[in-house]
Each structure stands twice: as structure tokens, then as C-alpha cells.
Amino acid sequence: MKGKRILLIVGGGIAAYKSLDLVRRLRERGMSVCAVLTDGGSQFVTPLALASLSGQEVHQELFSLTAEARMGHIELSRDADLIVIAPATADLLAKAAQGLANDLASTLLLATDTRVLAAPSMNLRMWLHPATQRNVATLRGDGMLFVGPNDGDMACGEFGPGRMAEPLEIVAAVEAALAGNTAIPLPMAQSAAPGPLAGLRVVVTSGPTHEPIDPVRYIANRSSGKQGHAIAQAAAAAGASVVLVSGPVTVPDPAGVETVHVETARDMLEAVEGALPADIFIAAAAVADWRVGAALAEKLKKGASGPPTLGLVENPDILATVAQAARRPPLVVGFAAETEKVIEHAQAKLARKNCDLIVANDVSPASGVMGGDANTVHLVTKDGVETWPKLPKQEVAQRLIARLAALIKESGA
Ligand code: C5P
Predict the structure, then answer these.
(1) Whether residue 159 is found in the same domain as residue 249
(2) How many distinct structural domains can be found in the chain?
(3) Ligand 1 within 6 A of 116 CB?
(4) What is the CATH number of the domain that holds 341?
(5) Each residue of 258-293: pLDDT tens digit?
(6) Final residue of a domain: which of 153, 179, 205?
(7) How many whole angstroms separate alpha carbon 76 and alpha carbon 58?
(8) 127, 95, 128: which is closest to 109 by C-alpha?
């Protein structure tokens, strides 16, 4: 997380004092923090305290001529990798949910193309009020992330939900958010030109699957979902209507994408079949090849008979099933995660699974691909192999989507 830029909006709540510690914790981890202080926030902490701890100028005024001359509010919000609101008051959340822009903080939230993480803090009745809950639901739907609030004693003497999450909890949420895709594409309906996938439906699988052994144990793999989620996001940015079927991951749902959460390979197949028909199917999930034939209803116990034998059975192959289905999408893309003979295996897979294109990559531990942010891929089609340089997963996603759009156009679909 070193070098990441956080724009921290400090709202008007007693928890604002904890935001001073949050600034220190973020900076300890190598992140830079630029603070925006609302009028309410300045009743609780001073701009001087925030400026001293952040080492940067603190922004307070919407119409500050000197600040506008150097950096308009649009740049201020776009110059960040993540926006954090801590404390996020009921008023700030209500403004953001309504799209109001009558002060610097609310204007930044409306103008930003960066993901926002809110740490709510308010009296428990304010938090539980249907109006606040409605606003939170709206904001979640718009892609805002939340951490807390926690239950606890409140400054007002009551007990319940409304306490702002602790600084280290917020730091953990910041790190999780930064591990995902924090750029929010323009909603296509309002962007200048229709994207190259406008009017098309794309189904993407992503992440690992978890196959239960007993109620507490499961078989899994190291897939993070970063590549598949980035592909879904890039497809949405290109104007497609996208369904993302995701196994258990910690990266956030991409904005503007319908995300279906599943656990097992069989659930994933069912969700994919439910999402068809589609124009493009992209199988980026690392689906478990096997599951325990008879998962146990009770936790397996150590016993005199020694270690248990797990009777494995094969999972359905989602990619092959979709590629052979009567409703086969015109373009079917698979991934080949290999630890050796990457291209050879990918070519065999192309034929065996009846795909149009295989994105092959080396996932041996030395490659750092599994869980990492970059990927070196080879595009394998019946016409040949094309190797791309090592690229951030988001760029791999954008290039892949551009390539698929070109293929669709060529085929005249
Ligand atoms: O055979 P292998 O697992 O290497 O194939 C990888 C490709 O097949 C990936 O695109 C993956 O999403 C897909 N796959 C699938 N269902 C499975 C196994 C793999 O969709 N059960």
C-alpha cells in the first residue's frame, strides 16, 4: 500500500479525534493523506492538527480562490486512490445519497471517479433511523464501501451501533479496498459515446470456489478474483450489461456490475446458466476440479482410525458446459492457469473445451500472479499465440475487452 494516496474527509462528529490517529496509521504504512475538513469537523479537530499530522495543506472551502488556482475540487477528488470519510456523519451520508454538492466534502463525493470508503459515526437512533438506513442502502448500491459502525458506549451516554470503527479497523478496510479496483467508470448511459460493447451481455466468472469437507473445512485455492473482477469492470466500462458470478473473495463488487455470490462449483454453474443467454462468456474463475463426494454434516473428529480419506468426485466443468450448450454464447473465453508448459496446455484446452480464446498465464509461485496485481498472459486462439508484456491486471482486463470487442465486430455479430 506504499505510495497510495488517500483523500480523508473528516466530518463533524466526536469521533473526529480518532481520525487524527487514523492519519498517523495510514502514513506509517507509507500512504499519503490529504485531508478535507467539514465545518462540523472543524468544531472537533483543528485544521492545524490535521495539517501537522498529514504533512499537507488541509482543504475546507469549496470556493477557495487560491486552492482553485492550483487545484480545483475535481482534481482534488481525482488525485486520490481512495476517498475515506471518517467520521461519516448522518448529514454527509444523506448529502452523498441525494447527490447534493453544497460544500467541499459533498462536491468532492459527487465529482469523484474514485471509490469511497465510509466509516459512519453517529448516535444510534440516527444510525437506525429509516432515513439513514435508506441512504446507506442507496450508497452501497452506488458502490460506496462501509466499515462499521461498531456497537458500544457512545459519547452521548447510550449503548448500541453508531461508534466509528477503530483506526486500525479502518486501515484494514482501506487496504482491502485498495486491493480491489478503485476506479469507477462513468456510467455508460451518460458518457459521451456508447462503448464498444454497448447493447451486449457479458457473463464473467471470477475467484476460487470453496468445496465443503465438513461444516468448518473446505477445499479452496489461492485465486483472489482480482483478474476476473477487473474484466467484469472493464466490460461494464465498455458499455456491456455484465453479470459477474464470483466465488468467495475479499475484493469489492465492481461498480455497475450485477454480482452474484456463490461458494461451490455447482452453485457457480447454476448461477452462470441462470445468467445466460449472453453474447460473451469469460471463465476467469479458478474452479475447484474436485469436491468431496459426501461432505459431512458434522465436524470430522480425530480418532483412533487415523486420518480420514476424502473421497473426491469431479466437479462440473462450467466452461466446457457453457461452450457445448445449445445456447453457446458466440464468444467463449477460458483461462489456463498453468505452472509448466503454459502454451502447450492452453492450446490443448482451447480444443478440448471448445473455446474461441484462451488467456494463458503462469501461476507458479515464482510468478506472483495468484493474489498479485500484475499478470503476464498469452492469448491463444486457433490462429496462433500472442504474448503480452507484464501488465497490471486492470490493464490486462481493458486490453482483453478491447480485443473481444474487435472480434465481435469482425464476426459481424
Ligand atoms: O481445466 P482447467 O481448470 O485448467 O481450465 C481452466 C478454465 O476452465 C478456466 O477458464 C476456468 O474458469 C474453467 N473451468 C470451469 N469449470 C471447472 C474447471 C475450470 O469453468 N470445473
Answers:
(1) no
(2) 2
(3) no
(4) 3.40.50.10300
(5) 999 999 999 999 999 999 999 999 999 999 999 999
(6) 179
(7) 11
(8) 95
